[in-house]
Specification:
It is built from 12 helices and 12 strands. The chain is an alpha/beta fold. The strands form 3 sheets. A 6-stranded mixed β-sheet has the order 9-8-7-10-11-12, with helices on both faces.
């Protein structure tokens, strides 16, 4: 009998599909939207918050749940029972990115009647992400496909690093992962910026994204600003941008004066530690060093902020 796979976060779904195993999927998360057509599969999770509001409203909802010791998402146990997976892929890297690992375990015991195999991903760096490709490939007996996926990723990343090392300019870069309150991107984003020849001093590689003040960002005086709210597509980000002009000192930032502020599709890129994280590295490289990497930017992934 063919393996039945459930993925409870978008990056896991994308990894499974990149390994050529889409036909084994029997259930996905409510946020899975890639590759196209994947939403035909039953959603096994739902959010307890309204993700369509302003970033400040979303933040308040999330903090209220977390402060009460509650998960931001829940497993739809009737759908999980009907899907009957024998492999569940989830994560424990971020408490607000998917259903908690413990809740997944408890739901699997209650609904499936057995301890289903659970693979939990916890990536903090680019190497961690590639390691997750290998882990999923091993859990699905797809080792050769995994090796090919990883080799292609490493080749593309190395191409960026080699050209970035020769970059003539080293602009200071700020990647803003949330707007209200402001958060700067950590995890794998500092690696991306530094690989293409940018300077990123607002967060350490592998560290979680952190809340900062706008004064901290102003003191850094970034020459490039990338606005990449977690889970927001370009349209939702666009609705938040007018508020930036009201931030004290915003108009004095070198990036603003030189028209080097960009918004990117954080829902599709940068925030998802799956195969498109390599596209994301190329996107960052193209924005930070357009003379070297502009041709690598995925179509429709960014906009200039005026």
């Amino acid at each position: 009998m063919a393996q039945r796979i459930a993925t409870l976060l978008p990056s896991a779904t994308e990894i499974v599909c990149a390994l050529g195993l889409e036909e084994r999927l029997v259930g996905i998360s409510h946020e899975c939207d890639f590759p196209p057509g994947i939403d035909r599969l039953p959603a096994l999770t739902r959010a307890k918050i309204d993700p369509s509001g302003h970033s400040g409203e979303i933040d308040a909802q999330v903090r209220s749940l977390v402060d009460d010791g509650l998960s931001v998402y829940t497993v739809l146990e009737d759908e999980l029972r009907r899907s009957a997976p024998d492999l569940i892929i989830t994560q424990d890297q971020c408490e607000v990115c998917a259903v908690s690992l413990e809740e997944v375990r408890e739901s699997a015991r209650r609904t499936l009647g057995v301890d289903a195999e659970i693979v939990s991903l916890s990536p903090n760096t680019l190497d961690d992400i590639l390691g997750d490709f290998e882990r999923v490939a091993g859990a699905t007996d797809s080792e050769q496909a995994g090796r090919e996926l990883i080799a292609d990723a490493r080749e593309r990343l190395e191409r960026i690093s080699q050209a970035g090392a020769r970059a003539r300019s080293k602009p200071r870069v700020a990647c803003i992962e949330w707007l209200d309150p402001p958060m700067v991107a950590g995890n794998w984003v500092p690696e991306m910026v530094e690989a293409c020849g940018g300077v990123y001093e607002l967060a350490e590689s592998g560290a979680h994204s952190s809340t900062v003040t706008w004064n901290t960002i102003a003191d850094f005086a970034p020459e490039v600003v990338i606005v990449m709210p977690c889970g927001f597509d370009l349209e939702q980000t666009r609705r938040e941008l007018p508020g930036l002009k009201e931030v004290p000192g915003w108009s004095d930032l070198p990036a603003v004066r030189n028209r080097r502020v960009y918004s990117v599709d954080g829902n599709a890129y940068l925030n998802r530690p799956g195969p498109r994280i390599i596209d994301s590295a190329e996107l960052v490289a193209g924005i930070v060093q357009p003379d070297l990497f502009a041709s690598l930017i995925p179509a429709g992934s960014w906009e200039r902020v005026d």
